[in-house]
Amino acid sequence: MPSKDKYDVVGQNEKNAKDANSSNSSIPKDEVKLQQKISLLNGVTVIVGSIIGSGIFVSPKGVLEGAGSVGLSIIVWVGCGLFSMVGAYCYAELGTSITRSGADYAYIFEAFGPFLAFLRLWVECMIVRPCSQAIVAMTFSYYIIEPLFPDCEQPDNAIRLLAAICILFLTFINCADVKWATRVQDIFTYAKVGALILIIITGFVQLGRGEHENFHNPFEHTETNIGKIAMAFYSGLFAYNGWNYLNFVIEELKDPYKNLPKAIWISIIMVMTVYTLANIAYFTTVTRVEILSGSAVAVMFSQRLYGVMWWIMPIFVSLSTFGGVNGILFTTSRLFYVGGREGHMPQVLSYVSVKRLTPMPACIFMGILSLFYLLSTDMYALINYVGFVNWLAIGMSIVVLLYFRKTRPDMKRPIKVNLFWPILYVAMTVFLVALPFYASPTETTYGVIMICTGIPVYIIFIAWENKPKSLTNIIDKTTLFLQKVLVIMPEENVISITEEMKHEHA
């Protein structure tokens, strides 16, 4: 939740909505002024902390299923890192040319107007964030329940129930107190780093002991179906998701022209190295067939090597993914705030609790959506949902770079990438977006349908200015009802009330 001292001005919600609706070319530039507090080191930790999460523990199976062989799966992991690096390099030009928080939402708004920007926001809020949260919560369940079922498959209902409990509990934490949420994030961040370091060190020890049978014929069983290989890249890219998060807070980065590209290069090279070494470590101990037979690859790894202490790995991973769920909930409140500020999300979602000073409506909404995605019968289908819509949106952001090169040739560009890289990235994105229609048509069709659901929402609630009084009354009454039930108000009103209460007590 944005605080009073972090922003110079927080305009009235109703005024912002009207300003956003009347703007045809760019996002208003006078509502928010962020303080530049993020250093180069902070920028690296933002990217690394955003990328490393549940993906490295859940994606190895999906990558291997699509690649078929050990050798090609390692190549896919490296390829996904290089692909992310190219995208991040292009984002460095966008981030230093359009120095506004919001990343792809802001870039698409600037280039193509409010409609496509709204669809990007809709996709992020309605699909990417809650779907990712459901995936991370299910990964938490897989690992935390593994010690109870060491020799058999975990019951699916138990996994989903535990994931739901995790989401509900952290939704309560984020609604109750911002300090509780940040403390959870601080504590559990160390777990994922500790788990990966332990895996990599153990892998080096295994290689030193001559445990490299799985690398003797690395390309045996290599998949030749190009559609399945694309699905392997989806799983790998899911693990790299988050490389563009620093652009969301570019206004807060010190010396962005210098530090943004440095932070990108350092962090993505670091993550790519860690991911590749972790997967090599897995293959020193766990066979291809074993990885394909279960989701909890890190647990199988620990069971082979750590003896009676094997349970330490599922605990590490569970702590990591638990913190990941909390992180998604915590950061999404800013996204809803920006959407409400620009008039592209219901105003009530940018309101805060009067008593708790937390973004309660946004957290509750995220929790409910995430529970809905838990109804999916296949976690890897969820990854395909996220992959399709997310890479479509990010690819469109890179198109913005090409569009501005043509329409705004004199635009200030402190970082100017060679056109080969954005063209290459767009071409690869087209490949990643188009092939799933052939390889995974059902999940892809669902993804398209979910994107299209934003069109009538935009027409009715944003583009349609002269709404009937009956409809505006329904919206107003619904907002008022939620305000009364949840005891929430616009942030500036809450701050005023809080200051008055402090003055009275004084």
Automatic annotation (TrEMBL):
Q: Provide the transmembrane region boundaries.
A: 38-58, 70-92, 104-121, 157-181, 187-205, 226-243, 263-282, 312-337, 357-376, 382-405, 417-439, 445-464
According to its record, how does it sit in the membrane?
A: Multi-pass membrane protein
Annotated region described as Disordered, given as residue ranges: 1-28
Please give the Pfam families that the UniProt record associates with this protein: AA_permease_2
Molecular function in Gene Ontology: L-amino acid transmembrane transporter activity
Instruction: Identify the GO cellular component terms for this protein.
Output: plasma membrane
Give the UniProt keywords, A-Z. Answer: Cell membrane, Membrane, Transmembrane, Transmembrane helix, Transport
| Family matches, as InterPro entries | AA/rel_permease1, AminoAcid_Transporter
Principal location: membrane
Q: Does the keyword Transmembrane helix apply?
A: yes
Report the subcellular localization. Cell membrane
Describe the family membership recorded for this protein in Swiss-Prot or TrEMBL. Answer: Belongs to the amino acid-polyamine-organocation (APC) superfamily. L-type amino acid transporter (LAT) (TC 2.A.3.8) family.
PANTHER family noted in UniProt: AMINO ACID TRANSPORTER, LARGE NEUTRAL AMINO ACIDS TRANSPORTER SMALL SUBUNIT 1
**Protein name (record):** SLC7A8
Q: Look up and give the organism this protein is from.
A: Mytilus edulis
